[in-house]
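As noted in the main text, all predictions were made from sequence alone. Below is one such record, for GH3 auxin-responsive promoter.
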Amino acid sequence: MAFVGSLVKAGISLNQKLNFDLKKPEEHQRDQLVKLLEAARKTAFGKFYGFRELLKSEDVIAAFQREVPIHDYDQMHDRWWRQQLKYPDITWPGKPQFYARSSGTTGKTSKRIPITDEFLQSIRDVGTSLVRTLPNFDFPKELFETEILMLSSSANLDEQEGHYEGEISGINVSNFPGWYDWFYRPGKEIASIDNWDERIARIVQEAPHWNIGGIAGIPSWVLIMLQEVVKAHRLKNIHELWPNLTVYASGGVAYDTYREGFEKICGKPIQVIDTYLASEGFFAYSARPDTMTMELALSHGYFYEFIPFDERGVDAQGNLLDQPEVHTLADVEQGQEYVLLVSSCAGAWRYMIGDTIKFTSIDPHEIKITGRTKFFLNVVGSQLSEEKMDTAIVEVAEQCQCEINEYAVAAVKEASGYVHQWVIVCEQEVDESHFANLLDQSLAGANKNYAVARSKALEGVKVMRITKQCYHDYLERTKKKGGQVKTPKVMPEEKMRAFLSYANSWS
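Prediction:
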């Protein structure tokens, strides 16, 4: 069987060498926009905004940006996507067979994103591009003879008025071709179990029968799954059961706060690859070792635009300006934080996903996700991004010699003024007052805006520690448990008060 692994690895390496590209990234992006406009020119959206005329423009990108406004979800849904539940050819040719329900971390209810056949193909194409980069990591040949465990949301989709709905990972799994059964685990039968706890129980039961070499999924839920497997089979670490486990494809949330938990449960180092797979597309993936930055997918059915996440693009609360400065790939700067816009083969047009990204490299174009526009905490001018909060939590957890994967924070109004109320999820006992002081110092030392806020409107920092069981019970109660669910780190004040009330009453 080692011979088979060698052949597969050599084949991927040869494919990588044969796929050379002479086009500039900016040319790829212009080509993608032209293809999108041509495909959608006869749709209602394309006719309304004159796609046929835009395609005749000398500068297609400038014409597109001039004529087509920026859309958030409510604008796309209320005016366009809602119509295509009944009628074809609204924002993309035909009528979508699937709609992806987002996990609803940035709004009051879940969003429904159209999933077209071309969109599903784009996800497979980006996945193929990721596979072509595997020779860069020099993985052992044994990896190419193993199975991949993908921890998705339920593949049992809901039928709704002629289409199917589910989370994007569940839709992907339900559309896997039959030959995926050769290497895909846990398999469609287990993946279709709706109840998260029952699905994990089946995975734990079947785990000894699998030869897992790679795992993919959101780190919070993957870590829980691995801990359950280790506990049930009385293992010292997961490599006692899966000795060929070599790579983990993370995504959905930042990996940093989970790193220690993964290191504890593994018997040897594994390669962590970050991925940027959202309901709106598969946008980027780690393409080389020793970094968690991700290479942007530039020729896979997406056209990107970038709004500076500063006074040029957003207000003090992180809300988009009426006329923000918008850049294309040709104009981006390394180290600058941007709000991401995407036009796609799902019929999204100049669509604001809600993510903020930063370019860590321009050649190649590599990015990291720095947070969500709604996870930007700036009620009193503190200007805290998710990236800054993650960094501070990891730093203070190391100082206190404890492990913290999850947390939540909100600006809460008290009699004396605003305080930042943090809830940290930790199994070890923690001196909450001491932790709050260290957290305050860390944020003030790394962020001058936070330091200014602490000297003025931000009165203080409070911390409450809760156990993982309390946290998981709360997620189950709020229907945010399992699979690809991403739980919010920054909460509105009223949700934080409800969370605190639940935590105080939990036993």
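The CA atoms of residues 356 and 446 lie 19 Å apart. The chain has three domains: 27-76+299-374, 130-161+173-285, 377-505. These features were considered when defining construct boundaries for the mutagenesis experiments described in Section 2.9.
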